[in-house]
């Protein structure tokens, strides 16, 4: 179990609104879940969450902490211009990663319907991002992403000029995108929705790579079946993704290590 005191992070619970504190707890939980399911890349990558009641501010990880040690009080609050609004006392000179700010602020600013954004560098996601064919709708899970967005690689995302094409490629409605030669990105109106999308997108990538590695012909699915399955996965057809599972995921974290709540 992580000793949060080891990181010298005083609690911010009494310094933020109850709504922000709950967002911090859920965001920290999401970081821990990404680590638990093997989707973390040490201190790289980011999960961001819009601050309730502050549409121009969002929470993001202190650059230098591992996902497995993120806590509610360790998250940094910044605005869409990168100004730090609230920095925790971590005992280290942690700031915000430039690429994380560029990618996440662009989407938060352009998509008011998006409150949570998750970006990963998993081996499976990066591998599929390098394939010319991209993600194939070859399984029921992958058919949920049959119309996934793609963004061409433009080097490390530290240039503000890339924000326009990043937002345009994601589009006004899509909640998942493959960053070519880079990794995966999902969004959601809630943290459970964004996490569920990333979990299933990652599973889709792993399944595709495993099947392709068998060097055997793939079973084709008729396009009309792919389209029907995709439609069944769309908002309005079913309950929001991830909401049902979220309490169980938190219970799992609490059994393993409840320090994310600090």
Automatic annotation (TrEMBL):
Family annotation (InterPro entries): Aldolase-II_Adducin_sf (IPR051017), Aldolase_II/adducin_N (IPR001303), Aldolase_II/adducin_N_sf (IPR036409)
Segments forming domain Class II aldolase/adducin N-terminal: 25-209
A GO term for molecular function: actin filament binding
Gene Ontology cellular-component terms listed: cytoskeleton
Family: Belongs to the aldolase class II family.
Protein name per the record: Class II aldolase/adducin family protein
Organism expressing this protein natively: Roseomonas acroporae
């Amino acid at each position: 179990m992580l000793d949060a005191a080891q990181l010298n992070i005083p609690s911010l619970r009494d310094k933020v609104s109850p709504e922000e504190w709950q967002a911090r707890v859920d965001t920290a939980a999401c970081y821990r879940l990404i680590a638990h399911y093997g989707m973390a890349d040490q201190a790289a990558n980011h999960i961001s969450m819009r601050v309730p009641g502050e549409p121009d501010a969002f929470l993001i990880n202190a650059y230098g902490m591992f996902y497995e040690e993120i806590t509610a009080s360790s998250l940094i609050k910044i605005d869409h211009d990168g100004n730090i609004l609230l920095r925790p006392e971590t005992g280290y000179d942690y700031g915000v990663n430039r690429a994380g700010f560029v990618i996440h602020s662009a989407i938060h600013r352009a998509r008011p319907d998006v409150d949570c954004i998750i970006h990963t560098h998993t081996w499976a996601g990066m591998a599929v991002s390098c394939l010319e064919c991209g993600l194939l709708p070859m399984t029921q899970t992958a058919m949920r992403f049959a119309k996934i967005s793609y963004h061409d690689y433009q080097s490390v995302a530290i240039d503000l000029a890339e924000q326009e094409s990043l937002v345009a490629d994601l589009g006004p409605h899509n909640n998942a995108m493959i960053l070519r030669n880079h990794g995966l990105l999902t969004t959601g109106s809630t943290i459970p929705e964004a996490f569920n999308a990333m979990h299933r997108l990652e599973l889709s990538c792993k399944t595709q790579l495993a099947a392709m590695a068998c060097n055997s012909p793939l079973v084709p699915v008729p396009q009309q079946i792919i389209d029907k399955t995709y439609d069944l996965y769309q908002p309005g057809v079913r309950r929001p993704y991830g909401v049902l599972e979220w309490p169980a995921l938190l219970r799992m974290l609490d059994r393993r290590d409840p320090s994310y709540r600090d």
